[in-house]
Amino acid sequence: MSLLDDLRDALDDRLCLDPDVLDAHRHDAWALSQIRDQRGDPPPRPLAVVAAASTADVQTTLRLCRRAGASVVPFGAGSGVVGGVSTAADQVVLSTAKMSGLVSLSTEDLTATFLAGTRGDVAEAICQEAGLTIGHWPQSIALSSVGGWVATRASGQLSTGYGNIEDIVLDLEVVLPDGQVLTTKRIPRAAAGPDLRHLFLGSEGTTGVITTVTFSLRPLPAASRGAAIHFATLTDGLDAIRRILREGWRPTVVRLYDAAETRRQFDAWCPDGRCILLMLHEGPAGLVEAQEAGCAVLCQTTGTATDVAAVDSWLAVRNHVPTLGQLSAIGLVVDTIEVSAAWSRIGAVYDAVTASLSEVPELVAVSAHASHAYRSGVNLYFTFVAQPAARAEMERVYTECWRRTMESTAAAGGGISHHHGIGRVRRDFMPQELGAVGVDVLRRLKTALDPDGILNPGVMIP
Fold first, then answer.
1. What pTM did the predictor assign?
2. Helix, strand, or coil here: 241?
3. Are 55 and 181 in contact (CB under 8 A)?
4. For tag attachment on the chain, is the N or C end more exposed, with fewer CB atoms within 10 Å?
């Protein structure tokens, strides 16, 4: 019998061979995939799509594919933007979209367990009905799955106050490439050897398929108050954030825009050439009042307060942006690239990346904002726009812009990915990020867990 026969016998209607469904699972939302689609060069259709409805379906799929020597591409909601999904004709896509819904919720323990395919906004709405919040709010919250959050080591807009996904995940259920199920223990912390959750946080579907995720929740904040301050330079704004976090304040949202992005999005509240900082303070009323006052004092030496309506405006439109496919359809090469660095190096990263991208002849604009801050450093989220003279040049220009950003960031001492992951677009820059020894450790880990190499080949590991 063929692999398809085996899958059909075991999974019945969960196996899909419909051409439209296969086409919809060829790739994720990577900008380069959109460019290739529009020039008529998409990746091949996969052999099949398995719409798993349970952990047992995932186990069956992996065991049958492993026995047949066929590779498996895990597929959450398809919202990834770095090429984590790009199929070949002999691959089986394993979709978790039907594995959706709440498994359990405890208001005493402040935990909620969801099936991995649950969409982010659905999970958050369920928690809010109980007066709680996950505290993880990526721009893609309505387009992404909770399992995808874990697999890409995601970060949300509230991360400065609530932490990133690794700070919010409490336990996982994962199906390993051989079909075994690993369930980590639901406890707040352990010193029982290395934390096995981190084998799958950021794994991009290469070490296992995440089937359930348990989050450590928070009560919905009793109070919430915004603040907006503008600075003469990006450096002044970054220094204000550094001092805020050094003092121990933790605003839920901290977003600093360079002059170009400030002019584009906040010109109604900020003089031209200035850089705006948005903050959101949440929590108990007394804490919010104290934090707002403490942060204001630290900003006032170099910053000027402006109308808090700037924060309200951002909150209203924060998830409304044109898709990369819409922009490439009109001949624009556009992408966002998030990196990070220590405070002492972040200025050099900004200068190096913007200078290098400015040398690309087709470049129209480059800008950046900081949206995730820590005691010891901060991220930068670059946006570039280029317009080649011919559509045939779009991929070359796109690749050149990414190469320059990655190399400039690494040379200035920054990290090449903050929260979108590696996928294919960053894969070949991993030696600069991890070093030769680090890449070797990553390969050994992959080989130990997936000796047959069936899970998502071509991703992350150079």
1. 0.96
2. helix
3. yes
4. N
